[in-house]
Amino acid sequence: MSTQTPATRALTQAKVAFRVMEYDYVSGQDKIGLHAAEAIGADPGRVLKTLMVEVDGKPACAVIPSDRSLSMKRVAAAFGGKAATMMPPDKAERLTGFHTGGISPFGQKRRVPVAFEASALAEPEVVINGGKRGMMVALAPADALAASGGAPHPLCAD
User: Fold this and answer.
1) Among 30, 6, 9, 23, which Cα is nearest to 127's?
2) Per the database record, which ranges form the YbaK/aminoacyl-tRNA synthetase-associated domain (predicted)?
3) Each residue of 61-84: pLDDT tens digit?
4) Quick check: 37 and 128 in contact, CB under 8 A?
5) Which one-letter DSSP state was computed for residue 82?
6) How far is CA 76 from its chain centroid?
């Protein structure tokens, strides 16, 4: 399986150290992030899922631990809006250039604002989708923020 994706190219271009972790992606999984964490043998709290949202009708990207849920109220506040909704999968695929289950905050076709769950950034290393199904990248949280242009915010429901 090739490990060259727009996401890994963006990380390389940003001069960010990362390592690729591959696993057997199972189509139709309900909780893709939890499946990925189990498949690579990592703590679900440091395996982050990339969720595309719309805040007051504008696209944005929220990155949170795979074992947590978004608070739409907190997402709206993080992006300076009043209301947030999940972006429909087909729209997320067109906007990012990635397939659902393989969406990464790095190297998206159209750059959008990115927010990371602040509590997840306390980990020494986080694991985030590498731009295709079955491929993750492990990197330092500060590098993930820098490469994505993201900012830390409280995004998860309590």
Assistant:
1) 23
2) 36-144
3) 999 999 999 999 999 999 999 999
4) no
5) S
6) 17
